[in-house]
Amino acid sequence: MARTVDELRNEIRLAVDRYERIESTAFTKESLAAICDAVGYDVDANDLPPKSQMRAGILWTIGDLDDDDPDSVDGPFRKADLESIEGALRDESP
What we know:
Strand content: under 5%
Oligomer: single chain
Number of helices: 4
Structural class: mainly alpha
């Protein structure tokens, strides 16, 4: 059975030591920063960049974008993006 977007988001949250969310919601800046850290995209935790920058950086780091240009990401992650991120995090796990 295919996983829903909400299930994928929660799997990603748990993979980066964030809390699972009951309600459907996009990632917070803090969750995006944790994902950035997990995939190796460097962000300043004391001065977080815009969400679009972090989303682009995550996708760039896992090989789904050619660069980390925030204009190349037009909103929250789509299901295919979430599947790629979840796969990258699973591959990075010991």
